[in-house]
Structures are given as C-alpha cells and as structure tokens.
C-alpha cells in the first residue's frame, strides 16, 4: 500500500510542497511507494500579491499543468473537517462529500481577509481572492457604463493602510481610468480616501521609508484619514467610527489577513493571527505527522524574536521545506531544519513609484521607478513557477537565495 501524503491548499505553500515531495521521493527512489494528493478549492495557483493590479490577466496558473505530468493527484474540493487523531479529512466536492485518510498531512490552506463585524460588510469589496478582485473589476465596469454618474460613484474608499491598502489606494485610479477609457475619452476626476485605525499611515516602516510613502500618497492625491475605522457601509457610502460619512459606491477592505479556519482543528496554542506554531522542521508539536506551511504557520526565523510573516517569500520556501520533510519523515530519513532569516518588503505605489525595504526595521533601500521595477520583477517573474515542469521540479529544492542581495 502506498503511503498517502495529503496536502490541503494549492497556493504558494501547497504548490511547492507537492513539487518538493515528488522531487524528494524521486531522490530517495521511493516514488512508487507514495501517493501525493492536493486538495484545493479551484484549479489554480492564484498569484494573490497581484490581485490589486490594473489587469487581472495572467494572475492564475493552472495547477494540473505541473501536477499531471508529475503524477500528483489533484482534487477540486474544500476540506471541511480535519480529524488529526484519526488521520482523516472530510472534503466537499461537486459530486458530494468524501473522507480521505493520510499517513502525513501538509496543511497549507493559507489566509483570508479579516472579517470586520460591521453593518453592511457584504457591501464592501476586496482583493483577497481572484473572485473578490473580479467582483471589484465588474463593479468598476458597471460604474463606468453609467459614466461614474451619481454621488460617490467616482470616490474610492480604502480601509486599512497595510501594504495591500497602499497598493490599492495608489493603483485604483489607474484601474478605473483604464476601464473608463473603453467608454469615453472625456477627462474624469477620481477621488481616493485611505482610512487607517492607527494614528499614522505606514508606521510599520522605518522613518525614511514612511516619509517616502506619505509623500507618494500626497503626490497621487490620496487623502489619508487616521485614527478612524469603518463603522458601517451602504451602497452609497462609508460611515467612519467618528461619525463622518464619505459618499462612495466603492469601499474596499484591506484590513489584514488571518489564518485559515482549518487551523482550529489542531490542539495547541495559536498566535494572534490564528496560525499554528511549528518546530524547525515545520511539524506541529502535538501531531508529528502534520506539517503546517505558508500563511497558516508561525515559525521563528532568528534569535531576536522574529517569526515568519504572511508573505510569499515565506510561503514559497516553507512549501519547499514542507514537501521535502514530509517525504523524509515518511521514509525515516533525516529532516532538514528551516533556515531563512532574510527579510525584505516590496510595495507598488502606482505609476513610477514603488519601494524595496530591507531588514526587519524595514529600511528604505530603493524607491521611485527603480523600486517599482524591482516590485514588478518579483511579482511578475520571481514568484511564478518556471514554465518548464522539470525546471520547476528542480527549483523545489529547499534552499533560500539571499533575497535582499538578489533584489538590489
Ligand atoms: C492583495 C494581496 C497582496 C499581497 N501582496 C503580497 C506581496 O506583495 N508580497 C508578499 O510576499 N505577499 C503578499 N501577499 C501575501 C501572499 O499572497 C500570501 O502570503 C501567500 O499567498 C500565502 O501563500 P499560502 O500558500 O500560504 O496561501 P494562499 O496563497 O492563500 O493559498 C491557499 C490555498 O488554499 C486553498 N484553500 C483554503 N482553504 C481551503 C480548504 N478548506 N480546502 C481546500 N483548499 C483550501 C485556497 O483556495 C488557496 O488556493 C499578498 C496577499 C494579498 C491578498
């Protein structure tokens, strides 16, 4: 009987787990003794970091392009219940409910936009999933077809000024203008309002980097309002926590991510984002035949108290380690400790502007058009798997390049 390696989630972590598992099983000459199965809610690896962009073209990679030739079994379904004491997962598929059993499980079900408990939350838009980004785009097309006419039709409210909030706030006008150009050549004036609960926008950056962000927002005519949060949303506008009403037919929530709710099936303490704590091999302490990788995992990355973040630079590498270690654990081979302490951030700040920061203090390294070019190089090339399946398989070896040196 083949050993069953089950991977839940086909995002960056799950995709690379699957390839790494196949690569390592071949390396150990055990490929005939293992079946690798991936369950994902659709057929794609979605390039989530690009969902805020002007165009949604090319933001999904077909999983089976890689999985089929490599013999990875793919199930289009949703894992609903995990029973880690019995090694069982219940999944819902179009053809009904199924129970899968596993010898080893990799949980890589990612993260979702934090739900905020306010009236009218269903009226907000987001760029968290491909469907969410598509819904926003369809809405903008509808507004354009009505000439952005009516109160608040040309005003975009962005709630939350994390990296995604900054990207949406600085790019949404370009996106709306591109759609508008299909309808008319007339000039149109859009307004963007960025609202932030903290007392400053971008206070997670070093002072120099924050200054660049604030200047860029100003130059792009983005109005920032701090010390406020969303209190209610209707189709016509947003009410803020201080009572201010902003007429807007497009309120976009970018208030941060939380780990997949599947984490709750495992005993043990979670971090404040709901993530599972893992050891240096990515295993859960309570269930040694379970590895968590990507946005569901919290792994210390240095001795200074820093741990992995919900970001591709962690998810992709955690995935490569996860597949490797799961296979080695199944065949009683030594596990490889995760080893990655480098940290950079790249942000797109609209036309001609972007920024690379390095280190945990997020020091400004490159800005302006050069910063934008680095960001685009990373998100349109580096985070995609190689087109050639064999090359992608080789790239799944758990090894981390020095990201900050490569980026600058
Ligand atoms: C708008 C946006 C911008 C971002 N920008 C950046 C950036 O600039 N740089 C950066 O490094 N990171 C960025 N991130 C974060 C980055 O996208 C995530 O860290 C990364 O996608 C996490 O990879 P993952 O594989 O853990 O999870 P995901 O990419 O979320 O993949 C999880 C997969 O699991 C599937 N899944 C979930 N639940 C189930 C279930 N119950 N059953 C079956 N399948 C399930 C999902 O459908 C999905 O395919 C951004 C994220 C967003 C949303």
Q: What percent of residues adopt helix (DSSP H or I)?
A: 25-40%
Number of strands: 23
Beta percentage is 25-35%
Ligand kinds: flavin-adenine dinucleotide
Helix/strand/pairing category: alpha/beta
- Give the strand order of the largest sheet, numbering strands 1, 2, ... along the chain: 7-6-5-2-1-8-19
Oligomer classification: single chain
Provide the gyration radius in Å. Answer: 22 Å
Tell me, briefly, the overall form.
globular
The CA-CA distance between the termini, in Å, is 49 Å
Low-confidence stretches: none
Query: What is the typical, i.e. mean, pLDDT?
Result: 96
**Helix count from the secondary structure assignment:** 9
Largest sheet: 7 strands, mixed
Layout of secondary structure:
Blueprint: E1 3-8, H1 12-27, E2 34-40, E3 44-46, E4 60-62, H2 63-70, E5 73-83, E6 88-93, E7 96-101, E8 104-107, E9 111-113, H3 130-145, E10 155-159, H4 163-180, E11 191-195, H5 207-219, E12 222-225, E13 230-234, E14 237-240, E15 245-247, E16 250-253, E17 257-259, E18 276-277, E19 290-292, E20 297-298, H6 312-330, E21 344-348, E22 354-358, E23 363-367, H7 368-382, H8 389-395, H9 403-407
Parallel strand pairs: 1-2, 1-8, 2-5, 8-19, 10-11, 10-16, 11-12, 18-20
Antiparallel strand pairs: 3-4, 5-6, 6-7, 9-17, 13-14, 14-15, 21-22, 22-23
Helix pairs in contact: 1-2, 1-6, 1-8, 3-4
């Amino acid at each position: 009987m083949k050993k069953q390696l089950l991977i839940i989630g086909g995002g960056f972590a799950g995709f690379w787990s699957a390839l790494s598992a196949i690569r390592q099983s071949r390396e150990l000459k055990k490929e005939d003794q293992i079946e690798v199965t991936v369950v994902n809610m659709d057929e794609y690896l979605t390039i989530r970091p690009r969902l805020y962009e002007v165009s949604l073209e090319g933001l999904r990679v077909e999983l089976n392009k890689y999985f089929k030739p490599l013999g990875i079994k793919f199930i289009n379904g949703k894992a609903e219940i995990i029973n880690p004491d019995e090694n069982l997962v219940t999944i819902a598929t179009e053809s009904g409910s199924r129970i899968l059993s596993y010898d080893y499980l990799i949980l890589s079900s990612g993260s979702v936009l934090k739900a905020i408990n306010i009236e009218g939350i269903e009226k907000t838009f987001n760029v968290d999933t491909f469907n969410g980004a598509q819904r926003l785009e369809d809405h903008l097309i509808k507004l354009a077809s009505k000439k952005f006419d009516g109160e608040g039709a040309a005003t975009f409210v962005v709630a939350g000024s994390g990296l995604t909030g900054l990207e949406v706030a600085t790019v949404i006008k370009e996106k709306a203008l591109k759609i508008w150009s299909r309808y008319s050549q007339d000039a149109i004036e859009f307004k963007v309002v960025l609202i932030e609960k903290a007392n400053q926008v971008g206070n997670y950056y070093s002072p120099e980097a924050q200054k660049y962000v604030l200047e860029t927002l100003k130059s792009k005519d983005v109005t920032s309002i701090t010390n406020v949060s969303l209190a209610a949303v209707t189709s016509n506008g947003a009410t803020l926590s201080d009572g201010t009403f902003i007429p807007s037919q497009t309120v976009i929530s970018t208030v941060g991510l939380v780990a997949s709710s599947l984490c709750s099936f495992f005993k043990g303490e979670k971090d404040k984002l709901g993530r599972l704590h893992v050891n240096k091999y990515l295993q859960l302490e309570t269930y040694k035949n379970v590895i968590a990788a990507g946005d569901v995992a919290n792994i210390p990355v240095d001795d200074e108290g820093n741990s992995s973040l919900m970001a591709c630079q962690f998810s992709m590498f955690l995935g490569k380690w996860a597949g490797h270690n799961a296979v080695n654990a199944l065949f009683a081979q030594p596990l490889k400790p995760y080893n990655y302490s480098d940290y950079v951030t790249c942000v797109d700040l609209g036309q001609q502007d972007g920024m690379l920061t390095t280190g945990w203090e997020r020091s400004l390294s490159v800005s302006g058009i050069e910063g934008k070019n680095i960001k685009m190089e990373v998100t349109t090339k580096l985070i995609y798997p190689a087109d050639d399946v064999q090359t992608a398989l080789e790239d799944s070896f758990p090894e981390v390049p020095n990201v900050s040196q490569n980026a600058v």
